[in-house]
Amino acid sequence: MTGFALSRFQDPLRPGEGPGVGRGLTFSLIAHGLLVIALSLGVAWHTSTPPAFEAELWSAVPQAAAPKAVEPPPAPEPEVKPEPRPPQPSAEDLQAQREADIAATKAKEAKKRKDQEDRDKALEKKRQDEKKAADEKKKLDDKKQERLEKLKAEKAAKAADAKREALRQENLKRIMGQAGATGTPTATGTAQRSSGPSSSYAGRIIARVRPNIIYGDLPLGNPAADVEVRVAPDGTIIGRKLVKPSGDPDWDRAVLRAIDKTEILPRDTDGSVQPLMVLTFRPRD
């Protein structure tokens, strides 16, 4: 195709081709053809067949050839019978199988839930039993501790009562014996004074106190209230203490109030005053 023919289909705005395009295309086709021929001759030269030679071998002594080994015919392959295909289940059987599997799964899950519930119940019951046992043990321990404390308190109270009683007896002995004694340090008597108070002195003191006793009701019997009275040298009462209650608190309080109201006790016939005395007051005397 010449440049003129190509120019018919060329874009008018495209610049024209240069001269010598046809000659270049022709030279290119000739070069490629020569290259293909050269390659074909080279492949044919390398694939030529080498010449073959034959040779025969002769032995000095004639020998007979061994018989040609004859291979036994192959054993016939055992006839393999095709295994019978199991019968295909029908749609109803498949549906029944699926329903049976679903039921078995549900039953298994239900059994699993029930087993878990049984374990939870057993665990809860065990916890409750342990808590109940702990509470009962605590109650028993509290009761035991309470009994021990009660016994200890009773023992302490008895010991205190015994100590007070021993002290009271000692005080009574001291009061009735050597308390207020006027003897020498080597004296062996038990009286307060060698001559002692007159026999009517205690009655005179009680007679002085009795008008000051204000007590309306008469108790059952004739209970006695023993009162320890401390007196100054001039006869002034400086202290009083109930050493043996009568059993009637009202009578005991009335006697103590009367002693406080009396204030001064009379002197004995010799003009002396006993510094410590225990006086007994009875409502019916």
Structure description:
This protein has 285 residues and is mainly alpha-helical. Among the domains are: 94-179; 201-281, Fusion Protein Consisting Of Minor Coat Protein, Glycine Rich Linker, Tola, And A His Tag, Chain: A, Domain 2 (2-Layer Sandwich). The chain contains five helices and three strands, in the order ααααββαβ. The chain has helices spanning 3-8, 21-46, 91-176, 201-209, 249-262, and strands at 225-231, 237-244, 276-281. Strands 2-1-3 form a three-stranded antiparallel beta sheet, with helices on both faces. The longest helix has 86 residues, at 91-176. The N and C termini lie far apart (178 Å).
Secondary structure layout:
Elements: H1 3-8, H2 21-46, H3 91-176, H4 201-209, E1 225-231, E2 237-244, H5 249-262, E3 276-281
Antiparallel strand pairs: 1-2, 1-3
